[in-house]
Specification:
Rossmann fold; 375 residues; 12 strands; 13 helices; alpha/beta; 2 domains
Length: 375
């Protein structure tokens, strides 16, 4: 993977990473004030038509400056309701309706301005409209900046399962303005930190150690600290995606805590817990199960749980969910193969392992110890 840094008068902390996927490769640009720097965006627009997709929360904050950056183009917009509950086929159809009504052609460029929900829906629309048009990610939440905007996973939820309908489709660019995090609600900030903790647990024990020392700086929105973890997280994800774009093997390690977490989101109803909150509790469960497997040291599992709690994330299951609820939803997870639930667990801090050989009784024991109700 290629990494470069530039130091110029307009943005002294600018960082550029390259996702190496041959002709589908693209840059990730990280810095302050990028949403107001027209060239950072316009360099990646294909034709004259642009559709900006955002939501009701982000639009009042950033839509105006992005439209100003695109003032030389024919720009349309769709402003969606905010929240995971709207990441569905009905919302996707609304994007297609606008594209068709406004007569967007195959050289149009879709711009996703918002968090993971906006990015996932916009990317899926781009993958499907006229069998594929260009799109650009402008992530405005920490979770989207460190995770969902990178790697080309796009899609929508179904009432029976999260992210079960979608496509792998890479953006032309990911442009991360760290100043957008200054307006992010505290709960959303913590949700993003969950994914940063995940990277430390699966692939970077030095990052995990750094987080233990600096978690308060992240919660206080220190932009230098945030830029550091965004850069390090994106570098890890870009490296994994470059090796396994379509999750045939290695890329599955990025799902630590997600099988449990997706069960929580589906079981409670999308939007009751934020994705990062569900992943936080899911990572505690994954660590507990890793100890039961005889891999992760119990002291390191306790360190992980403590860090997740310090990030103001849940460390216990919702009381309303039973073991049967979890197993039912986990059986519909994308990682299930031939009826076996495949889980991402830890051999040690910084080293993940994918396994489908975990007895349901061990999973139930973990769920009960982590607060799920007995059937």
């Amino acid at each position: 993977m290629i990494m470069s840094q530039t130091d110029n008068s307009s943005n002294k902390d600018l960082v550029i990473l390259q996702v190496e996927l041959g002709l589908r490769g693209y840059p990730i640009t990280i810095g302050r004030g990028l949403l107001s720097q027209a060239d950072k965006l316009t360099d990646h627009v294909v034709g004259r038509q642009v559709l900006i997709v955002t939501n009701e929360t982000v639009a009042p904050l950033y839509l105006g400056r992005v439209k100003q950056s695109l003032s030389g183009f024919n720009v349309d917009e769709v402003i969606l309701p905010d929240g995971e509950a709207h990441k569905n086929l009905a919302t996707l159809t609304r994007l297609f309706d606008t594209l068709l009504e406004k007569k967007h052609n195959r050289t149009t460029t879709l711009v996703a301005l918002g968090g993971g929900v906006v990015g996932d829906i916009t990317g899926f629309a781009a993958a499907a409209y006229q069998r594929g048009v260009a799109f650009i990610q402008l992530p405005t939440t920490l979770l989207a900046q460190v995770d969902s905007s990178v790697g080309g996973k796009t899609g929508v939820n179904h009432p029976l399962g999260k992210n079960m309908i979608g496509a792998f489709y890479q953006p032309r660019a990911v442009i991360i303005d760290t100043e957008s995090l200054l307006t992010l609600p505290d709960r959303e900030l913590s949700a993003g930190i969950a994914e940063v903790i995940k990277y430390g647990l699966i692939a970077d024990s030095e990052l995990f150690n750094w987080l233990e020392k600096n978690i308060d700086s992240l919660l206080a929105r220190d932009l230098d600290a945030l830029r550091y973890v965004i850069h390090r997280s994106c570098r890890i994800k870009a490296d994994v995606v470059a090796q396994d774009e379509k999750e045939s093997g290695l890329r599955a390690i990025l799902n630590l805590g997600h099988t449990f977490g997706h069960a929580i989101e589906t079981g409670l109803g999308y939007g009751q817990w934020l994705h990062g909150e569900a992943v936080g509790a899911g990572m505690v469960m994954a660590c507990d199960l890793s100890v039961r497997q005889g891999w992760l040291d119990s002291a390191d599992a306790a360190r992980a749980k403590h860090l997740i709690a310090r990030a103001k994330l849940p460390v216990l299951s919702p009381e309303s969910m039973t073991c049967a609820d979890y197993l039912a939803h986990m059986s519909l997870d994308k990682k299930v193969v031939d009826g076996q639930i495949r889980l991402v667990l830890l051999e040690r801090l910084g080293k993940a392992v994918i396994t489908g050989d975990v007895p349901h009784e061990q999973i139930k024991a973990t769920l009960i110890d982590c607060g799920a109700s007995v059937d």
